[in-house]
Design goal:
- The protein is an alpha/beta fold and 249 residues long.
- The chain has one domain: TIM Barrel (Alpha-Beta Barrel), CATH 3.20.20.70.
- An eight-stranded parallel barrel has the order 1-2-3-4-5-6-7-8, surrounded by six helices.
- It is globular and about 45 Å long.
- The two termini are 14 Å apart.
- It binds 2-phosphoglycolic acid.
- 2-phosphoglycolic acid (PGA) binds next to strand 8.
- The site of 2-phosphoglycolic acid has 13 residues, from strand 8.
């Protein structure tokens, strides 16, 4: 049985009061959640220590949105994988399309960050996905396959148990447009084929969907055989909406 997982990407939203309130509401509303589904909260870095404290006594785990591609050193303003793990992060996002496009993270940077995460006890949530132009030109699967091959090239055979793939079509992120469950399923099945080519135990790696996941579409998306959960941005800032998405997994 693959791990099912719903992760909340708060992006650059939230202060300590927001975190206290939202975590309080989530702990109450998710207390009866099926233990097979892992809920991960991924707040901005300044809230990691608070959120991991607030998550104590629940099954909720905490993740980081970003990390440095270096182990340590004179990199003013950067935060290493070890530092994030030290304040309670158990997961880290790498390869998010906003990092790729707004911060010019190329495949080499992404691959280095994956390696840094896997050198700690954290798991990596590796994001991939095509743009609208790439989808319209029929190259969605090829783009995703290339991102997987490049970004996951440093993963060794013993590390696949710490890899989660998030398929996030760029045109669906923050736009209100969601891939249809059939389109998501098609790419997710293709991702398993690509993972197998990389030497991964493809049926054991969770592959989650992201891009305008909300209460109204979560159940149908998560019902697809190769969709193991979701990476949720906007809707994760609302405790009730996010709890409903978690219950749909
Ligand atoms: P969204 O963001 O749910 O707001 O589309 C998803 C993401 O970027 O991870």
């Amino acid at each position: 049985m693959r791990q099912r997982l719903v992760a909340a990407n708060w992006k650059m939203h939230g202060d300590r009061a927001f975190a206290r309130q939202l975590m309080g509401q989530l702990k109450t509303s998710l207390s009866a959640l099926d233990k097979e589904a892992q809920v991960v909260i991924i707040p901005p870095a300044q809230l990691l220590a608070d959120v991991s404290d607030l998550a104590k006594g629940s099954s909720i785990e905490v993740g980081a949105q970003n990390l440095a591609q270096w182990e340590s050193g004179a990199f003013t303003g950067e935060i290493s994988a070890e530092m994030l793990a030290d304040v309670g992060a158990r997961y880290a996002l790498v390869g998010h399309s906003e990092r790729r496009s707004l911060f010019a993270e190329n495949d080499d940077v992404v691959a280095a960050k994956v390696a840094r995460v896997l050198a700690t006890e954290m798991k990596v949530i590796f994001c991939c996905g095509e743009s609208l132009a790439q989808r319209e030109s029929g190259s969605a699967q090829a783009v995703v396959d290339a991102q997987l091959a490049a970004g996951l090239r440093e993963v060794s055979s013993g590390q696949w148990g710490k890899v989660i793939v998030a398929y996030e079509p760029v045109w669906a992120i923050g736009t209100g447009k969601t891939a249809s469950p059939e389109d998501a399923q098609e790419i997710h099945a293709g991702i398993r084929v690509a993972l197998k080519r990389l030497g991964a135990p493809e049926d054991d790696v969770p592959v989650i969907y992201g891009g305008s996941v909300k209460e109204s579409n979560a159940r149908e998306l998560f019902a697809q055989p190769d969709v193991d959960g979701g990476l949720v941005g906007g809707a994760s800032l609302d405790a009730q909406a996010f709890a409903a998405i978690c219950r749909a997994v």
